[in-house]
């Protein structure tokens, strides 16, 4: 990637301040700008259009935090679990006649003494977590990223020092560079009064935060220069920004000045930097499934229907083998895996296609259910499993709830990202009584399945949040808790040995599933009349068919078409759907 002479990767704050100095020389006025972007976004935006450059930026997680350096450029991929509102911070001040900025930083960059003309700006706080149920194949190797990063920093270290010295001279800074941290400004001493909002203005003890001892590392993302409506709760986002977590410092809030307390993050947030690293976001993008694929050629190159047919055939063979040669179950499973909510009419989520495989018991579930669950983990980016037992329903917290005591949204089992595949195992369900919690959880599950909405409890009121989750239910008989769109008796004929799948094949299947789900779809005028006539005939034959059943057939038709890479329904694919439906009903007799 072509770029500026300074090193954006290892010294992003230096690049920010260099661009700030250039903006000042071009007439940028910190006193009237309210912190508006002065060109930083354009400076870093090329990272998202150049995969080779983006691959050099380490991903912040529980492994990389052990070797990442503060004030370097990192990226965090996660789900927005809570939105903590806005905070004020000292964004700029005048040092004599020279303006300096503290944007994208928690540590005061202002020189000693009392700064004049301090400008208080505003930024948003997002509490982000690794995406619930994210599968291992979506993640980059932490060791590989570390090697890339260390190789690059080794090559650029001499160049970075030379350029940073030039930047420091040009900005008339009285401070020195802080080694590999890359900050061309000096940190404040313990006990110094500062108008910064930072929690990390004073030295902290060495050692990693407790959060790094688990596989899940949350991150407090500080947002600048983006509309509040651009991101919403549960969005999966990639943030690229400045890491300000420092494992060598410890909080000492007693030493902070009163003005700092007034402007800093509320103590009720209860997320000290030694536990939750901070990322000051420079740029961001919402993530789709294709962003997790390592060989996403299906997204970048047009493919012929023949390519789709070949991949479909191999995937169908694999799914059929997993399901004990039950070809019909494999067909319905594929349609289920390609379903997604593509519209809403009143309270109806158009495009959902939940599947209930019945005639499964504990024994068969331990074989086929386990194999299928493991296979889906290797094919889909996000998968979760919920055991539907009386004990679990009575004790688990399914719906997110707001705790105003600590001003936090406490996560629930059903606070998951769009595109998540959810397996619900009812084969372990024994006779028992649901308490009030169990009844509430059962209702939350039913509402998710029927309406694709999850109820959030904000104590004084409740709010439904729209979502898009694929739901697969295993049960002995038709589930009473989870009335699925499709109920299919499972009829395996044998237990097959597990097929060894090459990484290339698995990646092709992932690309296929993601690409098919992204395709648009329509029904031509000529075929539309045929479909309408068939639906009318079906309703006359079976008076129990309702509008939801007819809508389900149209959804199946859409999934059948896109499974072959087609964006327009053909008569052949419509007849295949009707035949599948006939076979399903025969099994239910």
From TrEMBL:
Keyword Nucleus: yes
Keyword Nucleus on entry: yes
Subcellular locations according to the entry: Nucleus
Pfam families in alphabetical order: MCM_bind
InterPro entries named among the record's database cross-references: MCM_complex-bd
Keywords, comma-separated and alphabetical: Nucleus
Compositionally biased intervals (Polar residues): 194-215
Annotated stretches, region: Disordered: 163-215
Annotated protein name in UniProt: Mini-chromosome maintenance complex-binding protein
């Amino acid at each position: 990637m072509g770029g500026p002479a300074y090193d954006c990767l290892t010294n992003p704050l230096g690049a920010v301040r260099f661009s700030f100095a250039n903006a000042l020389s071009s007439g940028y006025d910190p006193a009237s700008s309210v912190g508006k972007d002065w060109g930083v976004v354009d400076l870093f935006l090329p990272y998202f259009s150049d995969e080779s450059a983006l691959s050099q930026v380490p991903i912040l997680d529980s492994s990389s935090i052990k070797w990442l350096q503060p004030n370097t450029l990192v990226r965090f991929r996660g789900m927005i679990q809570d939105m903590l509102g806005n905070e004020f911070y000292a964004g700029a001040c005048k040092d004599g006649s020279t303006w300096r900025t503290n944007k994208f930083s928690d540590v005061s960059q202002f020189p000693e003494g009392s700064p004049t003309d301090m400008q208080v700006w505003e930024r948003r706080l997002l509490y982000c977590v690794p995406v619930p149920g994210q599968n291992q194949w979506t993640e980059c190797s932490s060791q590989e990223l570390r090697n890339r990063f260390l190789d690059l920093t080794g090559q650029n270290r001499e160049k970075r020092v030379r350029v940073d010295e030039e930047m420091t001279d040009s900005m008339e800074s009285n401070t020195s560079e802080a080694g590999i941290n890359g900050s061309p400004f000096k940190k404040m001493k313990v006990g110094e009064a500062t108008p910064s909002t930072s929690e990390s203005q004073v030295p902290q003890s060495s050692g990693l935060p407790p959060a790094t001892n688990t596989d899940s590392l949350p991150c407090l993302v500080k947002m600048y220069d983006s509309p509040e409506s651009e991101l919403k709760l549960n969005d999966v986002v990639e943030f690229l920004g400045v890491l300000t977590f420092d494992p060598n410092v410890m909080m000492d809030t007693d030493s902070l000045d009163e003005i700092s307390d007034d402007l800093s993050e509320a103590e009720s947030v209860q997320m000290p930097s030694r536990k939750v690293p901070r990322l000051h976001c420079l740029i961001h993008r919402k993530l789709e499934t294709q962003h997790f694929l390592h060989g996403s050629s299906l997204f970048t190159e047009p493919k012929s229907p023949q390519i789709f047919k070949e991949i479909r055939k191999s995937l169908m063979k694999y799914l059929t083998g997993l399901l004990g040669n039950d070809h019909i179950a494999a067909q319905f499973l594929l349609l289920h895996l390609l379903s997604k909510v593509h519209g809403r009419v009143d309270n109806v989520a158009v495009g959902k296609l939940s599947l209930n495989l019945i005639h499964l018991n504990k024994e068969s579930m331990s074989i086929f259910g386990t194999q299928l669950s493991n296979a889906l983990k290797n094919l889909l980016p996000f998968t979760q499993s919920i055991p539907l037992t009386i004990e679990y329903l009575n004790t688990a917290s399914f719906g997110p709830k707001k705790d105003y005591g600590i001003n936090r949204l406490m996560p629930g089992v059903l606070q998951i990202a769009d595109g998540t595949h959810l397996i619900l195992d009812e084969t372990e369900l024994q006779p028992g009584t649901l308490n009030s919690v169990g009844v509430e959880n059962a209702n939350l599950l039913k509402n998710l399945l029927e309406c694709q909405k999850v109820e959030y409890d904000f104590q004084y009121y409740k709010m439904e949040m729209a979502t898009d989750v694929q739901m697969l239910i295993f049960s002995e008989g038709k589930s009473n808790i989870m009335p699925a769109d499709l109920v299919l008796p499972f009829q395996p004929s044998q237990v097959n040995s597990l097929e060894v799948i090459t990484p290339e094949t698995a990646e092709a299947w992932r690309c296929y599933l993601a690409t098919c789900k992204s395709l648009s779809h329509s029904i031509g005028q000529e075929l539309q009349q045929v479909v309408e006539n068939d639906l009318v005939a079906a309703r006359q034959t079976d008076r129990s068919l309702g509008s939801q059943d007819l809508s389900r057939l149209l959804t199946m038709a859409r999934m059948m078409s896109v499974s072959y890479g087609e964006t327009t329904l053909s008569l052949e694919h419509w007849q295949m759907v009707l035949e599948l439906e006939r076979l399903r009903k025969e099994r239910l007799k």
